[in-house]
Amino acid sequence: MSDGDSTMDRRTVLKLIAAAAAAPGVFAACDRPDAADPAAPSSPSSNPLAAGTPFDPDLLDPVVPWERSLGEPELETLAALCDLIIPADERSSAASALGAHEFIDEWVSAPYEGMQRDKVLVRGGIVWLDAESNRRFGARFVDLTGAQQTAICDDICYGEEAAPEFRSASRFFDKVRDLTATAFYTTREGMQDLGYVGNVPLAQWDPPPPQVLRQVGLES
User: Fold this and answer.
1) Alpha-carbon span 58 to 207, nearest angstrom
2) Does residue 98 lie within any of the structural domains?
3) Which of 130, 174, 168, 171 is closest to 152 using CA atoms?
4) In a domain? residue 207
5) 16-57 confidence digits (pLDDT tens)
6) Dihedrals φ, ψ of 17, to 5°?
7) How many domains would you assign to the chain?
8) Does one domain contain both 96 and 166?
9) Same domain as 135, residue 145
10) pLDDT, tens digit, for every residue of 78-93?
């Protein structure tokens, strides 16, 4: 996250991130008392083979049968953090332009135990991020300069290497970084950034060269 890091280096690291690991909730719960019931039933499914419930979704006609949890100020801060993690460059848009912060909102609003723990972590982390921004620079995170935002994130972006006073915030940053990468690299634009071709017909397919087959022990 330091100024000496290149965008290419950051993206290369993010491309290697696997599925987000569950992080323990370390912040005080911030749920709104008027939050809607997350287990509300979905709309009728167009697919007769799927019930369209949170536990049996209709993947052919997907719906999200729960209310979003994060408010506009939270989403603004989250969008700014997502864009610091994956900024726009000559190849693609910034993460928030592709809806990364909205994906995270949907994720932490899901009525499952792991996602509910993530909601505590993310909402508490957003509160910490704005409070730390105000303490250091007298403004919300979204209103800081890029250099000021980076200065704060440099203290929390290295996990267990973070100073003791930043350990909880670093777990928040790790979770948002994982979810931002998941959201970004599952969009069409993110897949193009990866160079992922997908399941498309090829005019010609060449088998792996002999040296590759030998290396993986598949040479006949």
Assistant:
1) 37
2) yes
3) 130
4) no
5) 443 333 333 334 334 433 444 434 444 444 444 444 565 666
6) -70, 130
7) 2
8) yes
9) yes
10) 999 999 999 999 989 9
